[in-house]
Amino acid sequence: MKQKSSAIIIFLSAAVLLFNLCGCARRDSQRVVIYSCLESFRNQDMIEQLQKDLPHISVNVQSLSTGKIASKLKAEGTKSEGDIIIGLDTAYSESLKDYLEPLNGYDDSLYLDEFKIPGREYAIWERYGGCIVINEALLAEKGLPEPACYEDLLKPEYKNLIVMPDPKSTGTGYLFLENMVNFMGEDEAFDYLDQLVENIIFFTASGSGPVNLLIQGEAAIGLGLTFTVVQEINNGMPFKIIYFDEGSPYNTSSFAMLRDRDNPKDVAAVFSYLYNHFIYRDKALFSPEPIFKNQTITIPNYPQNIVYGDMKDINDIKHKENLLKRWRY
Q1: Are 308 and 263 found together in one domain?
Q2: Is the domain of 211 the same as that of 320?
Q3: pLDDT value at position 27?
Q4: Rounded to the nearest 5°, which phi and psi values hold at 24?
Q5: Are 39 and 107 in a shared domain?
Q6: N or C: which end of the chain has fewer CB within 10 A?
Q7: What CA–CA distance (Å, rounded) separates 140 from 150?
Q8: What is the pLDDT of residues 59-80, one digit of tens each?
Q9: Which residues have a Cβ under 8 Å from the Cβ of 178 and sit 6 or more positions away?
Q10: 17 pLDDT above the threshold of 70
């Protein structure tokens, strides 16, 4: 009898543990969960502003890569723990729009026409552009001129001095690839990359990798994001931003609410704050490239009047998948 009682106790304990573990996976109706692809310092600023301006709402910000968020939402749909997504590549938002709450009640009149979303399932969070960044001190030390065009990057004197993000693992790398395909042609772009790889040190796994290697003096030329380079220039690094004639390649990220939330009022309150207030702060402080009418860039040393490249098909997931299948480096 004692053995039977012990077995019952063990069984009940296991059942309680299983119930608790299952409960951990359920959405918490007492807090708002934000899945964010933004950099850690931008997430921290968002948390601080939410705590200051919406202290009555508990908000949990989870930092995830854009690919990770897309995979989670594709698998979980509206059952996802996340209530709001922010900084997600727009191509992914477009592919996931059936899970997103329409934003028909939100005014989009301040957006540039090209950044208004027809179905209103999500809104553009930012435009981030790419540039060629050079370490002027290192090039001068080696007695080399700065490159003036993509063709220059193939010159043998730049061997083992160039670094580029990997398009398979970074949005930064992909925006350069997409731009090359658009102005060269697809086959011609991969022919060009077959030659460029001879001068590449390696392809970095993160979008900030090229800038970090320039900081360390391990590379002289990088393909990177303009706002990341400007931060380092303002920190005193001897960097110079170059735009080739084809213009700055760019992409956009977006933000949205998921459908069917357990606490829709709190989720809407947080999203409204991000939409109507915080986005302007984030643009002014961190990612200033224009998505709004009459938007000005006030960050020191940030390029003005940027000419952007041809980014046709940047939001086409199928097109992206096909290009990445051809990536062999």
Answers
A1: no
A2: yes
A3: 52
A4: -65, -25
A5: yes
A6: N
A7: 20
A8: 999 999 888 899 999 999 999 9
A9: 249, 311, 313, 314, 320, 323
A10: no
Residue 150 is part of a domain; what is its CATH number? 3.40.190.10
How many Cβ atoms sit within 10 Å of the Cβ of residue 326? 13
The answer to whether residues 201 and 163 touch, using CB atoms and an 8 Å cutoff, is yes
pLDDT value for 104: 94
Picking from 157, 240, 241, 151, the residue whose alpha carbon sits closest to that of residue 196 is: 151
Give how many domains the chain has, as a whole number. 2
CA 59 from chain centre, in angstroms, equals 21
One-letter amino acid at 77 equals G
Q: Are residues 135 and 107 in the same domain?
A: no
Are 282 and 42 spatial neighbours (Cβ–Cβ below 8 Å)? yes
Write out the residue range of the structural domain in which residue 231 sits: 128-250+304-326
- The answer to whether position 15 is within a domain reads no
The residues near 284 (Cβ < 8 Å, ≥ 6 apart) are: 298, 299
Q: 138-183 pLDDT, tens per residue?
A: 999 999 999 999 999 999 999 999 999 999 888 899 999 999 999 9
Phi and psi (nearest 5°) for 221? -135, 130
Give 294-310 pLDDT, tens digit per residue.
Answer: 999 999 999 999 999 99
Q: Are strands 221-225 and 162-165 parallel, antiparallel or unpaired?
A: parallel
Does residue 220 sit in the same domain as residue 153?
yes
Tokens of 316: 């086409």
| Same structural domain, 311 and 194 | yes
Same domain, 164 and 272: no
